[in-house]
Amino acid sequence: EKQKPLDLAFEMMNNVIMTRYKMKMIQTEMENLGVESYKMRSFNRELDKVEDKIAASAIKYAQVALKVAKDVELVRNQMQQTKVEMSCESPIDFTRSDVTQ
Q1: Over the stretch 24-68, which tens digit does the pLDDT of each residue have?
Q2: HSE (side-chain half, CA atoms, 13 Å) at 1
Q3: How far apart are CA 47 and CA 37, in angstroms?
Q4: Does residue 100 carry a pLDDT above 70?
């Protein structure tokens, strides 16, 4: 439950990375088709924006990761047992038996 924000941030970052990958494929295809670079200026500006978004989402992921790590550590510390005791017990119920200790 505490790691859900981290998973969402990772998914968002991956989505932006996949968008860049697809756009780079389109850019390569346009170059292979012989489209002049001046016609691709607008597309290249959008690609630059996507790359900026990748950097921003990576920073956001790192921030969320630190917060989640701190939250998980707090929960683990709260759930941690403080003391475990072991002692031997006799199988004889001395209150019902004539055997004395």
Answers
A1: 999 999 999 999 989 999 999 999 999 999 999 999 999 999 999
A2: 1
A3: 14
A4: no
Q: What one-letter code names the amino acid at 73?
A: E
DSSP string, 15-54: HHHHHHHHHHHHHHHHHHTT--GGGGHHHHHHHHHHHHHH
In Å, what is the CA distance from 64 to each residue of 24, 73, 81?
A: 28, 14, 28
List the structure tokens of 89: 């017990």
Residue that is written with structure tokens 């790691």 in the block? 3
Q: What is the mean pLDDT of the chain?
A: 86
CA-CA distances (angstroms) from residue 95 to 11, 90, 98, 99?
A: 64, 12, 8, 9
